[in-house]
From TrEMBL:
InterPro entries, A to Z: Gln_synt_N, Gln_synt_N_sf, Gln_synth/guanido_kin_cat_dom, Gln_synth_cat_dom, Gln_synth_gly_rich_site, Gln_synth_N_conserv_site, Glutamine_Synthetase
Protein name: Glutamine synthetase
Chief location: cytoplasm
GO molecular function ontology, one term from the record: glutamine synthetase activity
Length: 432
């Protein structure tokens, strides 16, 4: 992200007024998402349920599509709530639907629910019930109307957060008065890669072979350089419809790879918005018959990996004299480098090699306008003497609840010893 602006008021997580149309996506709008399959013979893809495919001669798809896009509001006050949670791997998203008697504006109006944790790797079969606590709500861009997506976290029946519930600990950190007073802002750059189904090879790449070397693909246009733009654009609009604080998108360095930015967001909101945006992206790629991966190094060799750069600032950093506090924050981050790296995403060692705009995973570094460092400070921040820092270490599959709360903890709540601070300042050539 180029800079951090003022956060939106959507961090209060309340619903806006009803949209005029039942659903933002119609058959016509979805049509360009799908690879052409009008040639005779067997279809190339195994997707069995193509609701939004081109209209068939039998009109079966037309009738199904009409039902999917039906506006039920004239006939009932009931709505559909899609409860979304994080599964046992810590990166997979699960969801299921339930009927709610009337539209809601806040997650506190929604009932708790449960699911079979033994089927998600989060509970044993003999005691498999896991309880969902609604935490944030967004408008549902797939069902439209008053229907909603509900971001939940998971607890035991006794009310204890299960091990994969990272939101609970993040909420504790962001609920600390010192953290609240500093109004931490986050701008997260989520990179992802689109894969062809079945072969699991990047979209636009010749199967079993490689495209031309990197260079012409970043932010490019053209059928030979940009692959998956319709998916990126559909996701952009769906996030705006949902109320996610998405701020931009662009094609990335490796062909078939894209990025979108969420923020600036305040505190726990950053994690809620990233997880909901990931869920929406999973649903869109599902309907498009394309596979989404957040692997930090999907293709080995001379190809860029996928990160989740996290821009961060506090109230004090954004005020006059904030640059000295930014340098103090960088010093703290250097002293907890190993702790942060261990929490910044699985497989990140394959990405943080010191090449392809990354720092080496074993060495902490910082610099102004240097994208080969662990932490980058922008030229404007240096010039103005206030602003934000960019932590370039998080992988694309990182948990935003962990990364954002750890940044706040390390830079606001944690204090190093004077000796460690002096040694780190000398090593990093920092004057704080």
């Amino acid at each position: 992200m180029a800079q951090i602006l003022a956060p939106s008021t959507q961090w209060q997580m309340r619903m806006t007024k009803n949209p005029a149309n039942a659903s933002p996506f119609t058959t016509k709008m979805w049509g360009s998402l799908f690879l052409k399959q009008k040639t005779k013979g067997t279809a190339k893809f195994s997707t069995k349920f193509r609701v939004c495919a081109s209209k068939s001669e039998s009109s079966t798809v037309n009738r199904l599509d009409d039902l999917l896009n039906m506006d039920i509001r004239p006939y009932t006050d009931k709505i559909i709530a899609e409860y979304v949670w994080i599964g046992g791997t810590g990166i997979d998203l699960r969801s299921k639907s339930r009927t709610i008697s009337k539209p809601v504006e806040h997650p506190s109006e929604l009932p708790k629910w449960n699911y079979d944790g033994s089927s998600t790797g989060q509970a044993p079969g003999e005691d498999s019930e896991v309880i969902l606590y609604p935490q944030a709500i967004f408008k549902d861009p797939f069902r439209g109307g008053n229907n909603i997506l509900v971001i939940c976290d998971s607890y035991t029946p006794a009310g204890e957060p299960i091990p994969t519930n990272k939101r609970h600990r993040a909420a504790e950190i962001f609920g600390n008065k010192k953290v609240i007073d500093e109004v931490p802002w986050f701008g997260i750059e989520q990179e992802y890669t689109l894969l062809q189904p079945n072969v699991k090879w990047p979209l636009g790449w010749p199967v079993g072979a490689y495209p031309g070397p990197q260079g012409p693909y970043y932010c490019a246009a053209g059928a030979d350089k940009s692959f998956g733009r319709d998916i990126s654009d559909a996701h952009y609009k769906a996030c705006l419809y949902a109320g996610i604080n998405i701020s931009g998108t662009n094609g990335e360095v490796m062909p078939g790879q894209w990025e979108y930015q969420v923020g600036p967001s305040v505190g726990i909101e950053a994690g809620d918005h990233i997880w909901c945006s990931r869920y929406i992206l999973e649903r869109i790629t599902e309907q498009a018959g394309v596979v989404l991966t957040l692997d930090p190094k999907p293709i080995e060799g001379d190809w860029n990996g996928a990160g989740c750069h996290t821009n961060y600032s506090t109230k004090s950093m954004r005020e006059d004299g904030g640059y000295e506090l930014i340098k103090k924050a960088i010093l703290n981050l250097s002293l907890r480098h190993k702790e942060h790296i261990s929490a910044y995403g699985e497989g990140n060692e394959r990405r943080l090699t010191g090449k392809h705009e990354t720092a080496n995973i074993n060495t902490f570094s910082w610099g102004v306008a240097n994208r080969g460092c662990s932490v980058r400070v922008g030229r404007d921040t240096e010039k103005q003497g206030k602003g934000y820092l960019e932590d370039r270490r998080p992988a694309s599959n990182m948990d935003p609840y962990i990364v954002t709360s750890l940044l706040a903890e390390t830079t606001i709540l944690w204090e190093p010893t004077l000796e460690a601070e002096a040694l780190a300042a000398q090593k990093l050539a920092l004057r704080v």
